[in-house]
Amino acid sequence: MSLIVQKYGGTSVGSVERINAVAARVAAWREQGHQVVVVVSAMSGETNRLIELAKAIQPRPAPRELDVLLATGEQVTIALLSMALEQIDCPARSYTGAQMNILTNSAHNKARIRDIDGARVQADLAAGRVVVVAGFQGVDETGNITTLGRGGSDTSAVAIAAALKADECQIYTDVDGVYTTDPRIEPRARKLSRITFEEMLEMASLGSKVLQIRAVEFAGKYRVPLRVLSSFEEGEGTLITFEEDVVEEPKIAGIAFARDEAKLTVLGVPDQPGVASRILGPIAEANIEVDMIVQNIAADEATTDFTFTVHRNDFPRAFEVLQEIARELNARQVLGDERIAKISLVGVGMRSHAGIASKMFAALAKEKINIRMISTSEIKVSVVVDERYLELGVRALHEAFGLDASA
Amino acid sequence: MSLIVQKYGGTSVGSVERINAVAARVAAWREQGHQVVVVVSAMSGETNRLIELAKAIQPRPAPRELDVLLATGEQVTIALLSMALEQIDCPARSYTGAQMNILTNSAHNKARIRDIDGARVQADLAAGRVVVVAGFQGVDETGNITTLGRGGSDTSAVAIAAALKADECQIYTDVDGVYTTDPRIEPRARKLSRITFEEMLEMASLGSKVLQIRAVEFAGKYRVPLRVLSSFEEGEGTLITFEEDVVEEPKIAGIAFARDEAKLTVLGVPDQPGVASRILGPIAEANIEVDMIVQNIAADEATTDFTFTVHRNDFPRAFEVLQEIARELNARQVLGDERIAKISLVGVGMRSHAGIASKMFAALAKEKINIRMISTSEIKVSVVVDERYLELGVRALHEAFGLDASA
Question: Looking at beta carbons, which residues of chain B come within 8 Å of A82?
Fold first, then answer.
């Protein structure tokens, strides 16, 4: 007998029929002798409906009250799923984030989990009950309802699995696993049966939106075995594992990418200590998240060029902030490009194998794709290209590194 | 400065516009220097939507989970109303039933309030914040979410007012006060500026659905001054007060009535001790609520006739149960009538004034309305008549007792 934590996202519980299907699946696991804790999201569309309602009243909703409002979404789902389980004679009991005592800090709308009282539900599990927990939400020390931000249900599931010392945390989603790249772009993309935590982190943060990056970090930190699988099809999915477990994985796990990026460059910045922080400080203060950062050597020796990427939505504001900074720094000019995309090659094998980067650049060059920016880490190489080359670039790299399903 | 508890029902918070209107009203009270606690229901239609969702999954929803589901309705409203208040610069903070620590017993779907931790919100009130509380819901000793049943928000408001020792509990609804009878039936019905608790209890239980009877009982028990007023119009509404306060009230407060009643009679029941409980025991076990009970003397001396009324929805089941009992008791026959209505004259003045009942019967006789059943208490006289005579009977009594607005 093992203890399994399963998480079902909004699409998987998006209708009465789908909730019934989830109940059937959960009950089957229980009948196989497992203890099951189910973590659920709000029914798809519900969170957006609530946000629209809030915005109709307050254009920038008070964060504390927004959490009170949004938390109802998952509360509806836990009640309905518990009913669906009881209807098929599978005893179940629901828990809100507050009832499960999912303690978070007080950062409303983006709270972080601090502690979970696992003991609370052990009696239910021992009595053979399925425990159904509201994902995405918690409670702070003074009893205020908090939410973890979009996609937080994955994090809830992993944190609960860690607190209960579960044997596996299964994330059910609308894809059947992690692929070498997005199959919508490269139909020959191959499903990985295993991937390391580090690779998964890079894949997730780079736009393969299968799992929330915070959930993967959490799983890595607490060593929770994590599996991604489909709530609509049968299959083993993809197991996210620790590097030492990996015996014979390919050097490259996959190719991640991000659309909707924008690039900003300050030309002719005085090349002095502290310049980078003087540029990025005001950007961070404006709550704009920065992705890649590259500092180039400029033509003359007294100045340098400073480039970074942001989400395309943040581009206009970032450009405005940067104009101001450029004036203060006596920089020459601010350039912006809203039509870029990022392609990344990810794999732990990269560490020990030289030549991966050059092979990547060659494959892109063969397709006449101009590289606008490069950034590397231990297990990934990212390039920025014109947005229109995104699909071509992904497919070229997929083939060059032998990731095709037929390979 | 006084402390006011205000309660707004589902219609009053049924849309974004109406929530904004409630916020404006609440903020005005606060600006006049009052401390304000607002208790709200779910937006109109929301509770029914949730119940339908539940029934689509489980025809008889698990009571514990139904409460988890339904409690989201008020939770949405408290968040939205708090946002609406903050939007007009009125500081506010929302509380769910659990957060406010509204402790109830564990009778899901019809829980009763045991205790409220008033201290919890005193700091907010002292800081000048409006406190917005979810009505209709609470939490039991082990942290399970409970609901008080339909209309429970009134009870929540009164209980909170009692716990906080509020100066007044104001129930905002879609009518502007308590009338001598339903103005839809008698256009000359007059609004009462005051009514006693006892009269209000009879009026409420007899079908003048302005206030939940449990809320009135609670208010009477804890001596909470209660006022019913309109959320859409200005006005003083009706104050529900204690008898000793009443100086010169008319003898008759008003005329209540109930449609949707049904009558059942067991003819020829052996006239022995314990027969009444042998008849009503199985009815109660079938969860059927009985309203009026009358036992008539039968034609012969060995047997008697036993009659009671139930809600029309319960009639088929009650009739079935009664057939069984009648067989066991060797009763002669079971009669049923689904087309009856009840009309009641209510007033504390009745106690000291003989002749009220006969005046009532005479007024009905004048209109050729046949009385099928009579039942009296200290402050009311109720008669059962054919349903088709309901309106005629109400109007006849309204005039006979001088209740018309022009009178």
Answer: 62, 65, 68
Contact A78 B71 (CB under 8 A): no
Q: Say yes or no for a CB contact (<8 Å) between A99 and B143.
A: yes
Helix (H, G, I), strand (E, B) or coil at B295: strand
Decide if domain A3-174 falls under CATH 3.40.1160.10: yes
pLDDT tens profile A97-113: 999 999 999 999 999 99
d(CA A225, CA B145): 33
Cα A24 to chain center, whole Å? Answer: 28
Q: Which CATH superfamily is domain A255-400 in?
A: VC0802-like (3.30.2130.10)
Return the pLDDT at A104. Answer: 96
- DSSP per residue, A28-47: HHHHTT-EEEEEE-PPTTHH
Does residue B321 sit at the A interface (CB-CB below 8 Å)? no
DSSP characters over A290-343: EEEEEEEE-SSSSEEEEEEEEEGGGHHHHHHHHHHHHHHHT-SEEEEEEEEEEE
Domain ranges of chain A: 3-174, 255-400
Same fold, A3-174 and A255-400: no
Whole-structure pTM value: 0.79
Neighboring chain A residues of B76 at a CB cutoff of 8 Å: 50, 53, 69, 72
Say how many CB pairs under 8 Å bridge A and B.
107
**Residues in B 113-152 with any Cβ partner in A closer than 8 A:** 143-145
